[in-house]
User: What shape does this take?
Amino acid sequence: MIHRHDVIIIGAGLAGSRAAVEIGKVADVAVLSKVYPSRSHSGAAQGGVAASLGNISVTDRWEFHMFDTVKGSDYLGDQDAIELMVREAPETVIEMEHWGCPFSRTEEGKIAQRKFGGHTLEFGREAALRACYSADFTGHVLLHTLHEQCLKHNVNFYSEFQVLSLIFRDGRAIGVVAWDMVHGGLHTFYGRAVMFGTGGYGRAFKITSNAHANTGDGLALVSRIGLPIQDMEFVQFHPTGLYKSGILVTEGARGEGGHLKNSEGRRFMEDYAPTLMELAPRDMVARAMQQEIDEGRGIDGEDKIHLDVSHLGEQRLMERLPQITELAMNFAGVDPRVEPIPIQPTAHYSMGGIPANENTRVTMDANRTEAVGLYAAGECSCISVHGANRLGTNSLLEALLFGRRAGKQIVEDVHDLEFPNLPPDYEDAARGEIEFIRNNRGGEKVGTLRGELQDSMMIDCGVFRTKEQLQKQKEKVAELADRFRHIQIDDNGDQFNTDLLEAIELGHLLDFSGAIVEGALLREESRGGHYRKDFPKRDDDKFLRHTLAWKRNGDWELTFEKEVVLKGVSHPGFEPKERKY
Ligand SMILES: Cc1cc2nc3c(=O)[nH]c(=O)nc-3n(C[C@H](O)[C@H](O)[C@H](O)COP(=O)(O)OP(=O)(O)OC[C@H]3O[C@@H](n4cnc5c(N)ncnc54)[C@H](O)[C@@H]3O)c2cc1C
Assistant: This one.
């Protein structure tokens, strides 16, 4: 079946939904999502969304927010895009408030704000209260508010459609082909503009805070048609995942005053970041925890650390952190009101993604040449506001703000873009993939291959990396990709064939995991979320550059040609220098 709309958006998280609200006011827009829209991973976000409103830290300014974001990015963020994001942050959040988003409040009735790691006043002098929140359900309330706005503006939703391929010819996006998960069958959607808001790629790792749907589909689809993906080696490990399951315990728990302790009962962060302690940037806290574990100071000699919030008192926990109190009880069997929560680093956020500029137009090379009619925003994109490491609460902001920018840009562009013609082979790639998976009889199982990939990525391409580990992992990914050719699924039906869909997702995971590993191997330095034990220093001469990875003839080709935009504003702190906390 063929569907025609002015604009096709893939993804109904904050980025896709926010863009759709804007476009729905003036054009015919379709949003495709493989999960029901309000179940997108954005809804799981707990801690908050950053904006220098100054409701509590009254001296807060966008310049301080910019400084923190640039420094937090380990100077790999593009400073023009960062400036734009921090300047537009307050209006983006206030707009959500005006649409009815139920934020927590200060006593005077303003939006409440809390501390989050790496956010400071006066260029690092003291911690800032900048994260706007709604208890520990911030993503949930933002996503539902946007969904209501989408319904109001007549957005067409195609829920439970899994997009399999992007139709792209001569530098122009034409549409996508998707599988109808409920009834089976291929559907083609085409239009004047296509936008990706497909979220992150945490599911490449065994311990992750990410939803099952976060399999980096958008990245695989874009790289399969010959476009590059950017900075894939930068994966953020959040310090506080529940032990074994990886389920997130928000950084807000430390923002509210939670302590990290090793097996000696000591707040070990005083050895690593004596000023900011538990609220140092995530990459640093995750590494400190991993080092404590590696040196034998994990709790009970295991891969875990204690997060203690019991001193905050029951009332504050129930008021500010009700969700994590419940999660700790249900998934770790501990009561945080009276005992510490066992935690470990968990793959959380994907800094890498589809390269796009600050207008959210997808770019195709190191010179930032724009593709026509193709846009990306949110976690799947790499506009590079987070560089090598994202600060907490900056990604709900990114998704909302660049979703909004994408919407406005598409509204501006859409009537200049002619309706494209579908090429004769528009469905071939998707049909070929489905037929291969359904008919292949090799005996390899999806669950086995996925498990081996996630285990090995965690061990050999995780918080700490070395050349030997990465070489080994490169071979492992190649071996798994080879075994994938002999895959076999059991279910051959049409309706809710999760066997088929998981096989497709595994293909995506295997594709871009190669880019993560090769990027990590070639980047012989340590920066932000990427830490090489054999190259512990940052090397600005060689690597103050974005990585671009192209899939060519089955292999990844990588370059470091794309320069970082350094801007400087009016403070010397915007030039690369050592990070001390
Ligand atoms: C547990 C958790 C807590 C977090 N807490 C915070 C926080 O407090 N503050 C903060 O700033 N950030 C937080 N983050 C990060 C932040 O939530 C995300 O980066 C952001 O919400 C991503 O939004 P998005 O719109 O880009 O993608 P998502 O919300 O992940 O949505 C992706 C969409 O793409 C669709 N999709 C994907 N592939 C396909 C396909 N093949 N076909 C069709 N549809 C597809 C999905 O169905 C979904 O609708 C958190 C993340 C996690 C995992």
In short: Residues 428-540 form a domain with the Methane Monooxygenase Hydroxylase; Chain G, domain 1 fold (CATH 1.20.58.100). The radius of gyration is 22 Å. The mean pLDDT is 95. The first strand starts at residue 2 and ends at 4.
